[in-house]
Amino acid sequence: MNRPPSDPVGPDTPTRVVASSKSVGGAERPVSESASHPPSPSAETVFGRYSVRHRLEKYGFGEVYVGHDTQLDRQVTIKVMRGESAQAPGAVQESLREAQKLARLRHPGIATVHDVGVHEGQVYIVSDYLDGIDLGRWLRENRPSWREAARMVAAVADALAHAHERFIIHRGVTPDNIILTAERMPVLVDFRLTPAEDEADEKKGSVSTMPWYISPEQALSAEHRIDGRTDVYSLGVVLYELLTGRVPFRSTQLPELLRQICEDEPQPPRQLVPEIPPDLGRACLKALAKQQQDRYATAADFGEELKRVLEIQPISAVLRQTATEYPVHPRESTRPSSGPETTTSVSVKRAREAERRQLTVLVCGCDVFDSEAYLELDAEDQTRVLRAFQETC
């Protein structure tokens, strides 16, 4: 099942929009992002040693260009911090400090930053040019299995954990900010460096160019509450969309969308796709908890939980496989022999009794036997599973 081209907001809404102040307050549809683009710079535009080739279609705060490193003769990506907030007193130095921290990140799941600088009062960041498709565009033509979805999100969680350990929050995790390499490995791009980026969006009348992925604390503009768990929530939305083909909350009007994010509970993904393993459905919902303390404490914890789900099969499948591998054998007859017991057999019996030693008895238990999956098996299958457990112990 392919992702509908108009998803995730609704049947009448463009896939990527910037909600203007006019569309938020009235009944007009949100303004298309392409309509809000200013003209692309000329080929002569340069930022230090980097010349601009053309502007990319998507961007968050500021603008992102494809450029050329004139010294190393390679293609690069250039992000330029635009707007009044970015040029406010102190904002340039703050953005520059954050960009320098970002440049110290070294992780295969994060686009490497090669250079930062200031050109005519504007901070620019030069990073790898990734020759791949973003996850949002890939989803319009593809629908991953639950295993593929869990694998992708676990990899992104590892990348976020690397950044969080160095006190860097992405603040804008969306499918459009995840690039898939040729090997279908996800790479994070477009970190938001400072609160000024969000403030610039608010002045435009929107919280984010992709508001379906923001956390409740971002929807409430609670800047002091934003931390690594904010990224965990946004990544949970990405996982939900990968699993179900839709985002948990949708509306054509921004105020209603923000209300849903802050107040409504998402529909459990297993109600939409029953094939999703219960543990994976629970992990997704935990990442989407309204209160930060109810989510995974770290992105690393989220990633480890997804890896655990990938390493084990659903318990019902394990039980049925065990029942097949360990068939029930007819019990050996315990009826005594009709013939008289020989002297030899009596001697052997006494010898064995004399060889008895003190034993330590280990009592093993397993919560499998209290699970719904086990109780749903018939008596014969339960016997097989019990026999297999006893042999393992």
Total helix count?
A: 15
The main sheet orders its strands as 3-4-5-6-8-7
> First CA to last CA: what distance?
44 Å
**What structural class is derived from the secondary structure elements?**
alpha+beta
The overall average pLDDT, rounded, is 76
- How do the helices and strands follow one another from N- to C-terminus? EHEEEEEHEEEHHEEHHHHHHHHHHH
Helix content: 25-40%
How much beta, percentage-wise?
A: 5-15%
Give the number of DSSP strands. 11
- Radius of gyration equals 29 Å
3D shape: elongated
Low-confidence stretches: 1-40, 196-206, 313-318, 328-338
Describe the structure.
- The chain is an alpha+beta fold and 393 residues long.
- The chain contains 15 helices and eleven strands.
- It has helices spanning 21-25, 91-103, 135-139, 146-164, 195-203, 216-219, 228-244, 254-263, 269-272, 278-287, 299-311, 315-325, 343-354, 372-375, 379-392, and strands at 17-18, 31-32, 46-47, 50-55, 63-69, 74-80, 113-119, 122-128, 133-134, 178-180, 186-188.
- The strands form three sheets. A six-stranded antiparallel beta sheet has the order 3-4-5-6-8-7, with helices on one face. It has a three-stranded antiparallel beta sheet with strand order 9-10-11. Strands 1-2 form a two-stranded antiparallel sheet.
- Helix 10 (278-287) packs antiparallel against helix 11.
- The longest helix has 19 residues, at 146-164.
- It is elongated.
- The protein starts with 16 loop residues before the first strand and ends with a helix.
